[in-house]
Amino acid sequence: MWRRSKETEETAAGQAVIRKKSKVPGVMITQFMEKLPEGMSTPDFTRKPIALTIQEGKSGAFKAIVVGTPTPTVTWTRTKGEILFHPDLCLQKYDAASHEHTLEFPKVAPEDADTYKCFAANEYGRAVCTVVLNVIEVGFSMSKELNKTQGEDITDFRKKLKQRNPDGTREEKPMEPEEKVWEILLSADKKDYEKICIDYNITDFRGMLKKLTEMKREREEEIAEFVTHIGTLKPIDVQDDDCATIELDMDLKDPNSKIYLYKNGVMVPFSKEDSEGMKHSLKQVGNKYVFTIKKLGSEDAGLYSVDVGGVNVFSTDFKIAEVDFAVKIQEVKAEEREDALFQCVLTAPMSEIKWIGKSSPLSNSEKFEITASEDKLIHKLIVRDCLPLDAGIYAAVAGIKSCNAWLVVEADKDSAKKGKKTARKTTMAGVCNDEELKKIAKEQQERYDKEMERKMEIAKKAQAEREAAEAAAMVEALAAKKAAAEAKAAAKAAAKAAARSKKAAAGKDAAARKIKKKDTGAAGGAGSTAGSAGGAGGVGGAGGADGTAADSKAGAGTGAAIGPGGAAGAAGGAAGAAGAAGAAGGAAGAAGGAAGAAGGAAGAAGGAAGAAGGAAGAAGGAAGGAAGGAGGAAGGAGGAAGGPGSAAGGAGGAAAGTEVGGTGGAGADGQGVGGGEDEGLEDEFDEGDYDSFEDSELEGEEGEEGEQAEGGEAEGGVTRGRRGKDGPLVPDTVIDPGVHFHAGLSDCKAIIGEAAELECKLSSEDCTGIWYKDGNEIKSSEGITISKDGSFHRLKIQKVTEEFAGTYKFEADGRKTEALITVEDPPRFVADDLAAFKTPVAVKRGHKATFKLHYIGREPIKVQWYLEGEELSDEGNVKIELLEGGSYLHLIKLQRKDSGEVKIKLKNEFGTTEAITQLVVKDKPTPPMGPLETVEATSSAIEFKWRPPKDVGGCKVDNYILERQQVGRNTWKKLGPIGPEPKYRDTDVDHGKRYCYRIRVETEMGLSELMETEDIQAGTKAYPGPPSAPKVVSAFKACITLSWSPPADTGGTSILGYNLEKRKKGSNLWGQVNDANEMIRDKGFAVKDVVEGMEYEFRVSAINNSGAGEFSTPSEFVFARDPKKPPGKVIDLKVTDSTYTTLCLSWTKPKEIEGVEDEAKAYFVEIRPAESTEWDRCNTNAITMNTYTVKGMKSMAMYWVRVIATNDGGHGQPQELENFVLAMPPPVRPRFTDAKMKSFMIVRAGNSARCNINFEASPWPEVIWLKDGTPVTKKVTISNAEGTSQLLIPTAERSDTGVYSIMVKNIVGQETFSIEIRVTDEPRPPGPVDIDENVPGTVTISWAPSPDEKHDDRLHYEVMSRDSHKPTWQTVAHRIFNNRFTACNIMPGREYQFRVYAKNDMGASKPSESTKWLIPLKKEKFTVKMPESKMCDLQSAPKFIVPLKMHVAPQGYECYMSCAVKGDPTPHVTWLRNNISLNTNTNYLISNTCGVCSLLVLTVGSKDTGEYKVVAENPLGRAESSTKLTVRE
């Protein structure tokens, strides 16, 4: 039965909200009104969307089909944010032909992954279902890398959690985010895992669960050292009194174990009891520990952890929402049985807030309805059907803010209605202006949106600054790497350049002395030209600072560096000038030239790192410096001329270098910083990184060109800048990312002898690349084919061998991708052998079969043979041979049972393979199978058939061999082979004779054993059995059509036809319908010989070769008339009685309208649960009565009921009840059914107290037990059953004493009864007893109270005494409630002793005895004066003091009559019944004792009825008393 929940007013029609489940799983339907208009329906899904898991970049779609009247409107939402509808992002479509609603994603992105909801709504309801979209990300993803980093070394986080001080406390430091999330997960419920992972960006959910399981196992072992049991763990909960609590139940092994509270890993001090000065406190009640945080503020948010003895046992994350109440709840005054409404407005949206009523949390139920507006700002609480008990303080809690207000319920003051259940009211108290609330909510929403926008801008700005800082840090790191590499390259280049310059200067020293000043200038020009040629290669640097400075010290001139590219040439020129100015002449000039050359070489090295042209410029600068040095060696004047020449050469080199190159970095100590092939960067990033970072500017080609230029073969590099006609170079601001990979190579496992292929895809179709294997370039050859198809590049190995294993790399435009080819050699069968092996093998029984198969593959190879799934071993009839590259299986002396599947299985380190064939062992067949089935047994022929043999021996059946014997003879006649068909027709038979047959099976393996049949008689008259009763197909006034089924027993022959008979209702004569000479061939017939309005029945018999068989049972009576019209609706349908499981209905048959609605013949009753849309029929067969009892209903369920009338013309229209019916008895106000209920009970301490209360109420009431006005404790067991409730205290203690009240309450009313239970025990004796005589003749006895007096208000005392003349104890006083008693009549001379007992409801205590008390006797003379006596006459006539009473006695019981009479002398008493004396009747027992006369009738019977009289007589008179005895049967 479907569940149904109702959330609003039950009685107000059209205002109900009914939630129900659809027939489609996962779809929830909300119905907006109780009863839908005719023809209208709520929306529903006939096809709901299906969850998708799709790769990033591909298209995906959710499809749904909805139904409903009117047509529903379909909308889509997602959990994280809103759906952005855009042609490139997401589209919503509807196909009118297929009625499909589609949410389509043209190109799925990772951010599309979410949970989506599909809503279908119309004015009568709404249907909703959810669906999940999972996206598989490809390529490089920064979020992946971050998550990967989060997932690494999770065990390290566990170690961090364990870091503690020696005393068990944690280290005083804030928690890392990783530690925080794992501590939260360790204490969270499984249902919260997904939300926590979303909050902390954990995407590896499976890996998280695996690690979490390990960590939980470790923590449980640690907790077990300190805690024996840990139970309820309640997360932090905010109360309405500005405080929050953390609750947990645990049993500590050592009660003295220290308990710590931490917030975000920092210890929080707390007090053991509730203290006003401390913010945090701990309260312990038994095993329950409650931490309280008071005066809540935003700073209280964080992760709170509870540790015991240095082990974390529980953690809870306290999140404080930034929300407050814009409008607080207000006091509501409601009348009794009226609804009450509390409502508030928040400053920020919240999906739900916490409502508290009279210190108890509230939730949605029939009593309370909690709702929120669509914007989540207006929250409402409706208290249904307010009663005086509902009055109290109600509170709303949002975040850490709360507000409360009173609910005042005014009782009905009408005295006439007091004690009666008043009617439910449809009004609602507390309703205010909704428009005003909506206006306030709108203002709060606008403020909230603005605040969110401001925070978003701040977050974006912070994110941008963070990203910029990260980028700058990365650039600095790269620059540092470059600088280190350039320093290394510059040092190497400087050493080479210095050596070349020194050698060149020494060789030309002699010639330089002879060159004149103008020639020296020309040499400088040549140097300048060389510098220009070299500088044309690329980027230079401003280097060589130290070299220039050294030359400046040695000479008089300083070379000026003009342009960054020619710094090396300038250094050379400066060196030349210094040499020319040197006083030492040639030697000083040579030294200066060498120094200049070294400086130039150093600068050149810096330029080489940036581009190839820098190296060429360095070479030119070095040449110019050398020439300048040579010129300076010729003399002072020549040196002076050479200096400017060198400077000019340097300037020329600088200009030429700047012309085509970019700008490099500035260097120091003679080593320039430029761009080049950086070995350090290659160590940092592997080749795969070049595929991912498409915008990388680390181009390897430039470095290679730089090296070539350094060797003296300067070539022009790729120009990446532009220049004006006359101005300086302008760097290009657009960076070309170059060629990159759309798909890289993937690792491949290849099998020896088969083909293998590697494939990658570039972003450009015009780019070509180079293939490498293990670092060596490869090209197309005999075994390898390299091809290019557009942007796809493929390498195919035709036939893989071992030497093809290795690492393959494809490089294009500096981008690289590589993959590993692993060559495997799994076991494989030789193709020809395998084809032959699969052919089934057939052998004869007792022979042998051989199976052989050759294979290839890397050894060792494990070979296993199986027969019918069972592994074979080399023993007995099985021989297995293992050869090199093959295996043989020999099966010897095979039997038929050995037939089956033969399998060989090969296995080595690379894999497993197997082959299957069939083994057929041929043998003689088994006998044919019975039983024999006789097809025909006539006077001329016998035809029969049988079943084939169970096992034909692996061969086909060639023939069946038959033999026949006539019963009574000894000979068998061979009928010969009859073929493979298991049937035979024997026409050579004699009428009336019986025959027996023997059958064998013949195959190529021989004959089977025989099967002998039972006797078969030829020509026996075997009549067929009766057919089925004829069924009426149709009935008209001139024709009735019938049909029937053939008989199950045909009499051994086929059915030839049928005879049909009819009979009128009320007649005994059957008449044949068909002609006697014409049988009916079909299994049906149309009877036309009928009279309109008459009622007929029919029967049929079957005919075979023996004749007609028995007639069938007659058909149902049918009228010869045209079809009837269906009846109308039943009248006056009503419910006469109901219980929790049954429902009694009654109705009146529908009216008959001629030609429109005919008379109803029977009825069907149908019910429909309120949450279902389908009707269930209660009675399978139609009923003729006008009453029906529906059984098997679900208690308190809601049902719709209808009755359908039916007749031969069909079903009429259903008649429904006007309203739904609840499965429950008629409403009954609760009342207690026990006539005499005890209101007071005494129980001895230690015994059980049991109180049973019987009641009746409908519907089933709620039963509440209270003790002294508060709920009973867990010690008290309450057992409720139908109509009864039991209170049980298993072991009563004195503290259980109190007034116990039971309240039985249902929707009709409530009733209360109270019983006082007093738990007590026998009291302890009172204290010592003292005796004091204040007045002569009296003594005062006093005693100390019993210790139980203060616990038992019903305890009292009893005083007993005895004296020396009376040894027995006599009670002097009882029920004394104080501790004193005065005894009178104390006689002097007697010795008295007193006892005091404490008494209560359980009995008396042991006595406390006093000491003996004696008053001395004073002897005096005693004189007796006898008074004068007077004679008194006491004689009187009889008189009845107590007369007889009327008596009514049950038959068979005793009856006792008595009366009292007085008289003097004693009167004589006579008993009479109906004036007959009974004194001598032995059936009556008569007695007269001291004037009390009694009569006992031992067994009352009808004969004892009558008038009874008592007559008392004495000499003074006579008296009578009479009564009547009535005997009740």
Give the gist of this structure:
This protein has 1529 residues and is an alpha+beta fold. The strands form 24 sheets. Strands 1, 2, 3, 5, 7, 10 and 11 form a seven-stranded mixed β-sheet that branches. Strands 54, 55, 57, 58, 59 and 60 form a six-stranded antiparallel β-sheet that branches. Strands 71, 72, 74, 75, 76 and 77 form a six-stranded antiparallel β-sheet that branches. The longest helix is centred in the first third of the chain and has 74 residues, at 434-507.
Write a structural description.
With 1529 residues, this protein is α+β, with helices and mostly antiparallel strands. The protein is built from 17 helices and 104 strands. Helix content is 19%, strand content 39%. Strands 1, 2, 3, 5, 7, 10 and 11 form a 7-stranded mixed sheet that branches. Strands 54, 55, 57, 58, 59 and 60 form a 6-stranded antiparallel sheet that branches. Strands 71, 72, 74, 75, 76 and 77 form a 6-stranded antiparallel sheet that branches. A hairpin with a 2-residue loop joins strand 103 and strand 104. It is extended, with a radius of gyration of 58 Å. The two termini are 53 Å apart. The N terminus is likely disordered.
